[in-house]
């Protein structure tokens, strides 16, 4: 490894270790100084007074609403019950029963008899809290503090918001860099789209589509978008940092190609949850392949690169020969209309490749022509070596069914895939709650991507001038912080430890 790469890597590793509050700038207090409450009037008038959004969905809002409730004697039990119900969701199946009994004994018998008969506790609890308590909250200083945080959330985002570390990879329109928010120390990956490249290749709609789809998602199995902003030369998407490398790297670059069966099952299950999340939002992903599945520090995966994803309007289908050769479903190749089925085909390809160490329609090291690949995908039956268990063979062949209407996942969606015997050992409730320990944890001292100098430099485009029509598009893109993710970042750094910071601006 060259010296340049070693320096870049060790700077990144050090930043990662210090990630969180240790890595934040000594000027962070200045950066996060609350505005005067009088400056929040406009916001107070315009903000939508929606209980669910303000007190449940937005992390800072939720925290402040809880603090408000804790400050009112008559609401303390409600909030303790809410906490207990949330804790209940994080309990393993074995511990749930006992904890459930505890909840019933502690809260329902003694304090709140009417709820005892209620079939759906959570709904009733929120129904109650969204009434008078929510009204009182909006008159309290806790809500003022919330507005101040909202003002900070809306501060403009620029290059100066971040520190930049090493280059992580290269994409179609630009580079991806590791970066760190100065005010909080949080690490992210910044995907840059060079304005001139976007313009030359007419990528405006695609860039905006990716950004808009990402900002509407909130899943632990898909990368999150925390910020979207622009610099003089680039449009930037700041995404969940995935330090563990992509699945392609893990399948091919560490020993014999392929992964052991526990890892295959675990990654397949998490990807399946990610796809289900996208499909629930009517989004077809269309680009499932090992390269696009990234690992985080702990070894959980997220789906990334939503450049080809599309949102379908209700009941409709799309057409378009997009995706990556070798992973496209037969109905995509033959240019038919299609829906969610193509992602189940993609999952089949992915599971196959993780087990076999090569994709289903190409042998190792082979360079098949496009037309040949297409012919195989449409007509050939894939082969299963003895690396495949009975369940794995069965699942892959059901997912790799050529007719999209007969394919597994096309009848009743993802649950059908999740209940296949291949996933017998996976508890999907616990998996969705993030409670399952990954079978492999990336080494925190290793950087799982190509050396800096091996990533080709991004060529510059000449002869493209940017004008006011471009500016219109840039301003649609440049929306700054994505509320929920920004608030999560802030909560992680400040609220876990002390309640004081949240309360007192000069703490
Ligand atoms: P494109 O859509 O242009 O192909 P990608 O989103 O695939 O761009 O990103 C290009 C490369 O950057 C990826 O192959 C990967 O190496 C790296 N990368 C992208 N997103 C992340 C992330 N969230 N964390 C770490 N590395 C990333
Ligand atoms: Mg890509
Ligand atoms: Mg892309």
UniProtKB/TrEMBL annotation:
Residues bound to ATP are 191
Family the entry assigns: Belongs to the protein kinase superfamily. AGC Ser/Thr protein kinase family. GPRK subfamily.
* BP GO terms, sorted: regulation of signal transduction; signal transduction
Taxonomic path = Eukaryota, Metazoa, Chordata, Craniata, Vertebrata
Is the keyword Phosphoprotein assigned to this protein?
yes
Q: Which residues form the RGS domain?
A: 56-108, 125-147
Give the top-rank taxon of the lineage listed in the UniProt record for this protein.
Eukaryota
Cellular component per GO, a single term: cytoplasm
Name the keywords, alphabetized: ATP-binding, Kinase, Nucleotide-binding, Phosphoprotein, Serine/threonine-protein kinase, Transferase
**Which InterPro entries does the entry mention?**
AGC-kinase_C, GPCR_kinase, Kinase-like_dom_sf, Prot_kinase_dom, Protein_kinase_ATP_BS, RGS, RGS_sf, RGS_subdomain_2
- Annotated EC: 2.7.11.-
Q: Which SUPFAM superfamilies match?
A: Protein kinase-like (PK-like), Regulator of G-protein signaling, RGS
Q: Where is the Protein kinase domain?
A: 162-423
Which residues are responsible for catalysis?
287 (proton acceptor)
Pfam families to which the protein is assigned, alphabetical: Pkinase, RGS
Q: What is this protein identified as?
A: G protein-coupled receptor kinase
Q: Which residues form the signal peptide?
A: none
| An MF annotation (GO) of this entry | ATP binding
> Which EC class does it fall in?
transferase
């Amino acid at each position: 490894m060259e010296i340049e790469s070693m320096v870049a890597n060790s700077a990144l590793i050090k930043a990662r270790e210090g990630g969180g509050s240790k890595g934040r700038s000594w000027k962070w207090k200045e950066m996060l100084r609350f505005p005067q409450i009088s400056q929040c009037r406009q916001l107070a008038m315009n903000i939508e007074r929606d209980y669910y959004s303000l007190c449940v969905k937005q992390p800072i809002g939720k925290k402040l609403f809880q603090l408000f409730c804790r400050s009112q004697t008559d609401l303390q039990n409600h909030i303790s019950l809410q906490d207990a119900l949330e804790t209940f969701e994080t309990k393993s199946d074995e511990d749930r029963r006992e904890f459930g009994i505890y909840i019933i004994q502690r809260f329902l018998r003694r304090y709140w008899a009417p709820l005892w008969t209620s079939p759906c506790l959570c709904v009733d609890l929120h129904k109650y809290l969204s009434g008078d308590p929510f009204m009182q909250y909006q008159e309290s200083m806790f809500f003022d503090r919330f507005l101040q945080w909202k003002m900070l959330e809306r501060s403009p985002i620029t290059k100066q918001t971040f520190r930049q570390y090493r280059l992580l990879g290269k994409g179609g329109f630009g580079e991806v860099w590791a970066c760190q928010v100065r005010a909080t120390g949080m690490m992210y990956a910044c995907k840059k789209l060079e304005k001139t490249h976007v313009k030359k290749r007419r990528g405006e709609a695609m860039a905006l589509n990716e950004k808009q789809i990402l900002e509407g998602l909130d899943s632990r199995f898909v990368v999150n978008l925390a910020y979207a902003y622009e610099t003089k030369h680039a449009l930037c998407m700041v995404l969940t940092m995935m330090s563990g490398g992509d699945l392609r790297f893990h399948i091919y670059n560490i020993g014999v190609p392929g992964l052991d069966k526990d890892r295959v099952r675990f990654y397949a299950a998490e990807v399946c949850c990610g796809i289900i999340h996208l499909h629930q939002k009517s989004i077809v992903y269309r680009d499932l392949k090992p390269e696009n599945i990234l690992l985080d520090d702990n070894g959980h995966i997220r789906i990334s690169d939503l450049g080809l994803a599309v949102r379908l309007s209700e009941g409709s289908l799309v057409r378009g020969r997009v995706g990556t050769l070798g992973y496209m479903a037969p109905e995509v190749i033959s240019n038919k209309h299609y829906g969610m089925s193509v992602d189940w085909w993609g999952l089949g390809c992915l599971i196959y490749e993780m087990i076999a160490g090569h994709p289903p329609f190409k042998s190792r090291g082979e360079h098949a022509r496009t037309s040949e690949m297409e012919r195989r995908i449409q007509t050939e039956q894939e082969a299963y070596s003895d690396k495949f268990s009975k369940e794995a063979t069965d699942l892959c062949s059901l997912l790799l069914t050529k007719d999209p209407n007969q394919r597994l996942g096309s009848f009743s969606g993802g649950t059908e895939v999740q209940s296949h015997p291949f996933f017998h050992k996976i508890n999907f409730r616990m998996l969705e709650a993030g409670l399952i320990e990954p079978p492999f944890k990336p080494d925190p001292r290793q950087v799982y991507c190509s050396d800096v100098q091996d990533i080709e430099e991004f060529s510059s485009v000449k002869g493209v001038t940017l004008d006011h029509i471009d500016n219109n598009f840039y301003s649609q893109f440049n929306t700054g912080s994505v509320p929920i993710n920004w608030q999560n970042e802030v909560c992680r750094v400040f609220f876990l430890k002390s309640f004081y910071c949240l309360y007192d601006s000069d703490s």
